[in-house]
Description:
The chain is an alpha/beta fold and about 210 residues long. The chain folds into 2 domains: about 1-135, Cytidine Deaminase, domain 2; about 135-210, no CATH class. The chain has 10 helices and 5 strands, in the order αββαβαβααβααααα. The chain has a 5-stranded mixed sheet with strand order 2-1-3-4-5. It starts with 6 loop residues before the first helix and ends in a 6-residue tail after the last helix. Zinc ion (ZN) binds near residues 58, 60, 61, 88 and 89.
Amino acid sequence: MWQSLSPEWQTAFDEAWEAFRNGCIPIGAALFDENGGLLIRDHNRGAEAGTLNRLISHAEANILRRLDTGQYNVRALVLYTTMEPCPMCMGTIVMSNIRHIRYAARDPHCGSVHWNDDDPYIRGKQIEHILEGGEAEFVQLCIQSYYELRGAEQGRGDDVLKQFGKINAGAVAAARALYRDKALDAFAESGIPFSQVYDEIIRIGGSNTEK
Length: 211
Ligand SMILES: [Zn+2]
């Protein structure tokens, strides 16, 4: 449930919902100092007016482009992101000297945390990466599947959905149930806080959330 999420995760998920409400891929992120103080929060801005390159306006990269690296001990900062970083964001994390990552959900489509093991250069950076999983992963995969269902309806294919389904069929099923009634669109229009949407998704998921 929402209440069991840490404040850091609540901030990242609020950003993911902001992205959803703006028609963007619903991924949010937030950067904290070693004492848990919030430094920067942002979300995917791919569909927002004024975004020139829609393809690379990702939550994590948007944050790190705004980080004044001279002001902080960057290696002590902790980056929370609701989705496993993609190749670009993982590269941006590495080159920014971020050494602590928390991600809510695995991304079987383009997640690149495995570079920590596969690539000798990145392995040498000794990046701490922790998957939150559980309900947080379920909710992220659900809202992103919902976004992908809309895309599939518009002819963009369903490859991402198939891959999400392989690691969490319950989350994709919950997204399909919500999408039938356009429930998340209705929530977004109503302006209710994401805390309520999060718990509603958990309720629909039922016992599937731990799969
Ligand atoms: Zn990315």
